């Protein structure tokens, strides 16, 4: 079931997403948050930082990130470990031992997937933050991914690599594989918030909300979840 919120701009989208997250954090003694990278949640993370500066403690939060590139060191400027620390964790009082990000530089990526899924299974995620790819991916679960997938290694779709090339010197530097929570891993969360902005996301947003439930558009599985908040700007909502 979708609760759709349409906002004027990215700042409003980020503020609404923060309201959803803060309500969950306040309500739970030990909040478990599923977090995402990319441009969509940066505004949300700035709102969290501002809230912490005002005195609110996030020290009891446990976090699980959706994904990580394979083959680059966690300290690489484009790793998701670096992204999360620069955009959120370095500015909060979350304990480092409560921060969980897949190990994309493991000597045994398959075992790293199993270990991550095993740890994730010990918790129930109270809120999962998601963006949506222009091809409808969630996490790095590209079109064609099975809905019952668990944490896994994925080969990145060419469109996804093109979308992410702006963060690297060239598309040749964009990793070809990642570790990602699977679709089942994601949809086990009690509540999900999807953040989408920009006209380039309009088709994917339409397919997620009004299209058929199909692995051709992984986000469409969210139609079967009973607690999803979708926060959009006018451009991303333009085809609804």
Overview of the structural elements:
- By secondary structure, the chain is of the alpha/beta class.
- It has one domain: Rossmann fold (3-Layer(aba) Sandwich), CATH 3.40.50.
- The chain has seven helices and ten strands.
- Strands 1-10-9-6-2-3-5 form a seven-stranded parallel beta sheet, with helices on both faces. A three-stranded antiparallel beta sheet has the order 4-8-7, with helices on one face.
- The longest helix has 18 residues, at 10-27.
- The chain is globular.
- The model has no long low-confidence stretch (mean pLDDT 96).
The CATH class label is Alpha Beta
State the end-to-end CA separation.
Answer: 16 Å
Which stretches of 5+ consecutive residues score pLDDT under 50?
none
Helix amount: 25-40%
Might you state the CATH topology name? Rossmann fold
CATH architecture: 3-Layer(aba) Sandwich
Mean pLDDT across the residues is 96
In terms of DSSP E residues, the strand content is 15-25%
Q: How much is the radius of gyration in Å?
A: 17 Å
Q: Which shape, going by the Cα principal axes?
A: globular
Return the domain count.
1
How many beta-strand elements? 10
Listing every helix as H and every strand as E from the N terminus to the C terminus, the arrangement reads EHEHEEHEHEEHEHEHE
**Main sheet: strand order:** 1-10-9-6-2-3-5
Structural class: alpha/beta
Question: Largest sheet, described in full?
Answer: 7 strands, parallel
SS field, number of helical segments = 7
């Amino acid at each position: 079931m979708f609760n759709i919120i349409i906002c004027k701009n990215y700042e409003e989208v980020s503020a609404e997403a923060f309201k959803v997250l803060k309500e969950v954090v306040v309500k739970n003694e030990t909040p478990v948050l599923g977090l995402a990278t990319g441009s969509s949640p940066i505004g949300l993370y700035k709102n969290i930082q501002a809230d912490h500066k005002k005195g609110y403690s996030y020290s009891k939060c446990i976090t699980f990130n959706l994904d990580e590139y394979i083959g680059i060191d966690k300290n690489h400027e484009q790793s998701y470990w670096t992204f999360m620390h620069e955009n959120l964790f370095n500015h909060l009082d979350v304990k480092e031992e409560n921060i969980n990000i897949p190990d994309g530089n493991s000597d045994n990526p398959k075992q790293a997937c199993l270990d991550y899924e095993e740890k994730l299974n010990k918790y129930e995620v109270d809120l999962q933050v998601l963006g949506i790819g222009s091809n409808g991916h969630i996490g790095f679960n590209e079109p064609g991914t099975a809905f019952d997938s668990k944490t896994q290694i994925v080969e990145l779709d060419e469109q996804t690599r093109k979308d992410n090339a702006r963060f690297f010197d060239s598309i040749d530097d964009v990793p070809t594989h990642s570790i990602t929570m699977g679709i089942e891993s994601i949809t086990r969360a009690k509540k999900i918030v999807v953040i989408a902005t920009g006209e380039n996301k309009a088709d994917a947003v339409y397919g997620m909300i009004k299209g058929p439930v199909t692995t051709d558009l992984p986000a469409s599985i969210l139609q079967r979840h009973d607690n999803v908040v979708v926060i959009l700007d006018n451009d991303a909502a333009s085809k609804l």
